[in-house]
User: Fold these one by one.
Assistant:
Number 1:
Amino acid sequence: MFFYVCIVIIGLIINFIINYFELKKTLKFKLSLSIALINSLFMVLGCKALDMIINFKYYEDFYSLSFITNGYMFYGGILAVILSETLFCKIENLSTEDVIKTILINDILLYSIWKIGCFYNGCCAGIVKVPIQLVESIVTLLLYIYEKIQKSSFFNIIITFSIIRIIAFIFRKDIDAFNFYTNIIISIIIICSSIFIKISKKRR
């Protein structure tokens, strides 16, 4: 568990540094720092909040150690980041899509790093002998590298990531039916809504 927590922290630090320096290319110091901090903070809060909602039975004692060490649901982090960064961009009159696209790509790298922690922690295991956590880590790392080169749209990134998540959940073994279907439904909703918004934007 100690190694898992260390990986989570290391991932957040790397994510923060990359976000800050990439944003600093086009934004002022204060804005870049604020956006990077908001991303790190709401990623953790969102991941933990959704996990507490979906897996509430594991949080009987709010003040127990399990509150700190129990799982994180990445979709919760993405949603919290998108909402918080959108609000911040509106207040500061910034391009919401450009900011979210920048940090979202780097959040995929964060996810890839966190999956290494899952592997060593023994969670998110697969139904076969192949370590699905490491497979997912490598695939999302390749997605991160590809998107850095191709510079795809925000919607292409989130759609591809959600498809990867669906495939990964199909091969998970340490997950109950409610958790499984909830994550699949969230993935499908994200894919469908992203496609709908993308098509709508093209018609304008």
Number 2:
Amino acid sequence: MYEQKLMLSVEGMPPRSIAPSRKARIITIIVLLVALFYFLFPIDWLVVSSTKNNAGLITSNSLLFANNSIGKNYASLMAWSHGYHWRWVANSVLYSGTAAAAGTLLTVMAGYTIAKFNFPGRKAALAVIMLELLMPIALLTIAMYVLFQSIGLDNTVWAIIIPSCVSPFGVFFGTRLFTSIGCHRTH
């Protein structure tokens, strides 16, 4: 198989015919810096706000640290939550981490199976997945509650994790991904 090698210029850039212009690079950097600010500003605001009391949140400059200590706010948070704050954080990490890992595993396996194997009902399964993409998840909330209640899983960890593991978009994306990759690269 013939592979064409991309020859780099002296500056480490692609050949001049395909290299972005200086103006395009500057615009790209500016757009990326704006995106960086957009995503990091809420985190900065959260850290700065943790140094303020309730009155300071309203009256002081929201971008500057306050004189109130984080320790005092932490003690207030622990008193308000009766010491459950870190348990809530751990639950959030457990639920989201388990759902993300299981969801990724399931969608990749389903996408690979649909893309690489011929089995009866393959086209019907893909059609059902495409139809599920049109259905908003809020429409299924009551039905999922009734289902989990009937099998005794309501008010459990699994009632949170199981619905988060299933993603029709993930299966569709995995199917498209593995369809685009040749068989010699996946085995």
Number 3:
Amino acid sequence: MQKVTCETFSLQKKIAILAVFLFSVKVVAYLITHSTAILADVMETTVNVAAAFIGLAAIYISLQPADASHPFGHGKVELVSAMVEGAMITIAGVIMIVESLDAILHPHDITDLGIGIVLIIAAGVANFIVGRMAIRKGERSMSPALVASGKHLVSDTYVAIGVVGGLCAVLAMSELGYDAYWLDAGIALVFSLVIVVTGIRVVKESIDDIMDKSDFDLLQQITDTLNEHRDEHWIDIYGMRLMKHGSRIYADFRVVLPKDMTVDDVAREERELQEAITCRMGDVEISMTPVPCDDGVCWECGTECTGRHEGFLGLREWTVESVTSETSTFLQWGREPKPIVPERSPPPETGVCA
């Protein structure tokens, strides 16, 4: 995981360097053309530059190990970084709405559109390629700051597409003798609204993560892993809660185990659960609360123990709803067996991924 986080930091450095370079390219394009639409793109890229360096600082801080003051590590700083970036995107969009309205009311001539269009196309292609790379890498390494940077670059590409399309229309209509310079400001206004919506969305997602909103996709991954590596001693799992700190995930839940297990047995089961989840998902730390079974669930427990009262009939497939339930669902289901869990891989041996 340390290698993954270092690669994340390295990619964010490249994004910061790219942001500075593309900002320079777009400033040149604006100075050549005096296009309000290109000015909107310049404003967006200005935010890109600031956000890239904020994200770089956030990822660097998040890489620092846990200490006495921050026992869960420093990963939450990435969420703060993403929220600040979203706020900056929103502010840039609002400023550009004002500029666009002013340009509509007070239109001005545009010059050398051809050169400006070429420069914006080149910058947009670079933004899209690097942005998609950042999103994929950020999702794999669970880095909110890198995902936010990637989304910002991709949204900048969409703005560039609209700007280029509109400017091409302005150029074509001008060649035909029509006065279409008002369209330049109109395009800028539309994409300024897009920028505002993007910024608000980034802020909302960051706040959700700070408040530990349930991540259904992540819960589904963990549930699938538990079903795949299910041990015969794991009668039921419920009460699961997740907390994300940057790229690190903390999960706590209750596990119903045979009541004749010793403390050593319980510790072994916790290690097996930790290994099963870590092998599939990486840096996930679990906290397991063992719960002894009762006499009414022998029919869905595959272990042999001295307290068995009836024969084993089958296991139930765990779902996100069942593992996040506050109470064990096997007590709610009654004695009618549900569909049997398909054949699964045996639990991984200690230290070895299945």
